[in-house]
# Entry
Amino acid sequence: MEKQAKEIWVYCWSDGDSWSLTSVSLLAKAREMVGNSSNWRVCSLLFTAKTNVALSQLAMGWDHLYVFQGASLAIPDHLLFADLLTPLIQEKQPEILLLPVENFTSVLGATLGARMKTGTIAHAVDVSLAENGNLTAKIPAYGGEYLGDIICPHHRPQICCVRVPAQPLTQNMTAGTFSVTPVDDKRNAVSYCLGSATIAQTHDKIEEAKLIICGGRGVGSSENWQILEEVAGLLGGTVACTRAPIDEGWAAGEHMMIGTSGKYVAPQVYLGFGVSGMAHHTCGIQEAGTVFQINNDKNALSLSQADYAIPADVELFLPVLRDAIQQRRNEK
# Structure
């Protein structure tokens, strides 16, 4: 009898026409872990309220696609999703379930862990696969200064919520099989969606940015922060931040934050202004291309970690930089 391949499941999200960037990155990570091994297969999980999902356009990265389809899936409900996944997990017995680090998926992962009596690893920043099938998740500790390894060797599935840098799929671009499970919209649910409203997105996604202008506490004031935003606008970059500018009220919100409590980014160029360089932030820019850091503290960790370090007073440097860029643009 042919040995059945072990399964890694990846929770994915799609608008019906394409995978989200996070989903593609998770699929790419799963592919990276299994390599060309015939002992593993990568499976995607898709919950959708649409009846006309273009599966052919989602045909990338997976060997099998498990689709749950029904109008009641329009609004994510962790109890409903757990109800649907629990019997499938019991039947297929996957080794690993990877989910992105988001509010909903973190709750879903914990719910499934409790139901399956297995461990759920939260807020991992990287994952790797051992030859024995054990997943190793790296978790930041002590404000991101250290990374610890967590494993779940005795229970299955191994459930992990992980942040991975944005990355494309580079192999196995053709899809395998798929199965569709219709969802009964008249089920005896404990909650119901009465309606929904779409909030227009008014900000750029830092995880998709090619050029990031990031400010830290060293920016100094809301007035200086305004100049930083002007610099980003002149350069065509996306503004990001550490925790401090959010607490000070300079930055618009946590969607701009990089690090263990924010986003993991992979820009081609990263410009940091007044960033201290603590690990809970810098772990979020490990995949960045060229890193520039400007800081008036010559001993700041950020300067020693940068490709190009500029020891300068950020409050004086920003307006000079803005004016220089503007002058250069006017000369063209």
Remarks:
- The chain has eight helices and 15 strands.
